[in-house]
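Okay, any thoughts on this one?
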Amino acid sequence: MATSEPLPVSIPPREATPGGPRPARQRLPRWLRRPLPVDRAFAGLRTLLVDLALNTICESAKCPNRWECWSRGSAAFMIAGDRCTRACGFCAVNVAKPLPLDEGEPARIAEAARRMKLRHIVVTAVARDDLPDGGSEHFARTVAAIRDRSPKSLVEVLTPDFRGRAEDLRVVLAAQPDIYNHNLETVRRLTPQVRHRATYDRSLELLNRVKRWAQYPVQTKSGLMLGLGETESEIFQALDDLRAVDCDILTLGQYLHPTPQHLPVQEFLPPATFAAWKRHAETRGFRRVAAGPLVRSSYYADAMADLPG
């Protein structure tokens, strides 16, 4: 990686260095290996989700941290079905023609939150570019249902960009989620390859609009995947761009390609490198930063939301 300024700690040697455009699938380094949970409570929670016919991004995106988060009273639900209209190069969610919205889904998610005794609930969705409102009203109805059945829970939304439509963003903001999350995902140069139909500037503008338009105190959050071939100077610029729109919370994690058909991993960054990025992001003014190989957008979402004011 080229660099434009020094990191706050020295960068250790890389596990792998960028090769050609499609490097061979690499063996996971030791710090990314995690045993599968066999706990009965984990199986019971999965059964509950099946019984209520609910999708979680934890399962759909094959998140390695799902049991850890569930045991802490935090979970991320994926609404509007499990078929996405965008074929992003990094994402494991199924790409297919979506089914009609399930009108009973918001109530079932609220019931799951109540039964699981969740303290922090993340509501995300597949991209629904087929819908006139991009699914914004479904987001708002889900937040309202959770407020009704689990009033003490913090609610975080992780939305698509709604193709930049201001009216859709205003619908979600009217439901007053505690945290508004929208991921930048990668640096400017790589966005066209990584994020289908999305643009770097549109995502920054969405986060900027949230802060300008919200009629209540709201925290904004975003995240980057590292290991896609970005340079250090490009990461520095992305952090500066996020702070320029007053983003409060940042997550930095290792990209892991879910199948050989997805974008390849260009390098595995060791934990010490993520620790360096965490320190650097904190000096940029982010109020909370989670950085590590296994960090995902909703990882320790409850702890990340524990902000003063």
Q: What stands out?
A: The longest strand covers residues 219-226. The mean pLDDT is 83. DSSP finds eleven helices and ten strands in the chain. Strands lie at 55-56, 74-79, 83-84, 94-95, 120-125, 154-158, 179-181, 219-226, 249-254, 288-292.
